[in-house]
Amino acid sequence: MKAARLVGPGRMEVVETAIPEPGEGQVRIRLEGCGVCASNLTPWSGPEWMRFPTDPGDLGHEAWGVVDALGEGVRTVRVGDPVAVLSYKAYAEYDLADASAVVVLPEALAGRPFPGEPLGCAMNIFRRSDIRPGQTVAIVGIGFLGAILTRLASQAGARVIAISRRPFSLDVARAMGAAETIPMENHADIIERVRDLTGGMFCDRIIEAVGKQWPLDLAAELTRERGKLIVAGYHQDGPRQVNMWLWNWRGIDVINAHERDPKVYVQGIREAVDAVASGCLDPTPLYTHTYPLERLGDALNDTRDRPDGFLKALVRLS
């Protein structure tokens, strides 16, 4: 099979490697595609702790495809089932996963892109955000995740204020149900705008979905007394400082919404399947760029550089 691996900072190659055999309790998936996650960008940049080359397929974890083979004891899926899968070497034509990490897709979704991991991540963040009708919710950072959360929050009856750097992202936020949009330009101006929109009360819920220091600082400033600050951004480039005086003074609840329990991940994917299959959520317009496996490097560069019109990259494998 073909598989991609990183061979140095900003360098990848496609190699031929053996198709893996499923062990007991495992499923082999013939992959149709894999989403490109921003968490790949730090390994792609080549930090000191990174070791090259990576294993074939490594870093890919947003996959979907068709069940190709079953290991001993697997009874929950069948060969030929279309599935979303939580696996970790999915920049390849085949990957293995525990049967418990495979979610069967309904026929209506078969053959359609379905990067289960980020969709499930959005559902889990939304659940932990405790968003209710009538609340004011600000979402700082409208990428793929922020756009989906905008839709979920607005459908839940919240008034959504979307804050993002790019005009394209703000257009997406409006299409996904945001009541107000604010360019992420001047710190003080954003605070004053939100103050005006909320009658000086600020927001019941703030979801920070960027993963950088300044947006995290801004999110805290926009959280009302006894509000909830939900950290959805992936902060992997170093330590963070927080304004503990402000957090204390306002009595803010701070929620790190990243899940690590595979069972919770999979539950989120199941909820995403239900939402998309029922028509409550349509992520299709958010898949803006598609690449073959041989152009994974371009997909990673565009995920980093965010050219105009870019929101989410998919690598197609079949």
Number of domains: 2
Report the CATH superfamily of the largest domain: Medium-chain alcohol dehydrogenases, catalytic domain
Which CATH class of the largest domain? Answer: Alpha Beta
Low-confidence stretches: none
Gyration radius over CA: 20 Å
Molecular structure report:
- GO terms for molecular function: oxidoreductase activity; zinc ion binding.
- Residues 145-244 form the Alcohol dehydrogenase-like C-terminal domain.
- The structure is a single chain.
- Helix content is 29%, strand content 27%.
- It has 318 residues and is α/β, with parallel strands linked by helices.
- It has two domains: 2-113 and 287-316, Medium-chain alcohol dehydrogenases, catalytic domain (Quinone Oxidoreductase, Chain A, domain 1), CATH 3.90.180; 119-256, NAD(P)-binding Rossmann-like Domain (Rossmann fold, 3-Layer(aba) Sandwich), CATH 3.40.50.
- The radius of gyration is 20 Å and the shape is globular.
Give the gist of this structure.
The chain is of the alpha/beta class and 318 residues long.
What layout of secondary structure does this protein have?
Blueprint lengths: L1 E7 L2 E6 L9 E10 L5 H5 L17 E8 L11 E4 L8 E5 L3 E3 L11 H14 L6 E5 L3 H12 L3 E6 L2 H9 L4 E4 L3 H11 L5 E6 L4 H9 L1 E9 L12 H7 L2 E4 L5 H16 L11 E4 L3 H10 L7 E4 L2
Parallel strand pairs: 8-9, 8-11, 9-10, 11-12, 12-13, 14-15
Antiparallel strand pairs: 1-2, 3-4, 3-6, 3-15, 4-5, 5-7
Helix pairs in contact: 2-3, 2-8
